[in-house]
Amino acid sequence: MRHKSLILGALTVISLLAFIPVPTRAHTPSNMTLSYDYDNQILTVTVIHSVADVNTHYIEQIIINKNSQFVMDRNYTSQASTSSMSDTFNVAAADDDILQVTAICSISGQITRQLTVSSGGLETVPPPQIPGFPLAAIAMGLVFGLAYTLYRRRTRSPG
User: Fold this and answer.
1) In 38-151, at which residue ranges do the beta strands (DSSP E only) sit?
2) Residue 74 gets which letter from DSSP?
3) What is the pTM for the complete model shown?
């Protein structure tokens, strides 16, 4: 009986460890900010993309669309920093134009953001929110803890 409890406890710990996020230096772009200088017609793109080697893992391409139409793209062969990259683009835009920017990683993944141009500033469309791994780890811990408690009660009850 003790052997079964030990195995169940070990499986619970291993299952919970599988849901703990591990920091890594090789992943897809994590965030992107866009700003538009209306007076000078310049779009600034900053991509948060942590990498270990800027020459082998970097933002490879940035694609810009205006009102769902291709405007330009730019290709890169490295990233200036191990944490992010930033670039500026001359993009003619008027009030209510929607600029959509996609940054593509050289290894895997991409990120897309958009903003609505306004002479009085800009309106950024927030990205969709996805529940993170910490919430999943807490939920799994509660489920396994409850299952373990119920299992222990059932095996200890006389019957």
Assistant:
1) 42-48, 59-66, 69-75, 84-90, 98-105, 110-118, 121-124
2) E
3) 0.62
d(C-alpha 44, C-alpha 118), whole Å: 15
Question: Phi and psi of 38, rounded to 5°?
Answer: -65, -40
- pLDDT at residue 66 in the model: 97
Note the pLDDT of residue 25.
Answer: 46
Asked if 63 and 70 count as a contact pair (C-beta separation under 8 A), the reply is yes
Per DSSP, the three-state class of 139 is helix
* pLDDT tens-place string over residues 132-144: 555 566 666 777 7
Sign of the dihedral defined by the CA atoms of residues 150, 152, 153, 157, in that order: positive
> Alpha carbon of 90 to those of 40, 42, 46, 55: distances in Å?
8, 5, 15, 26
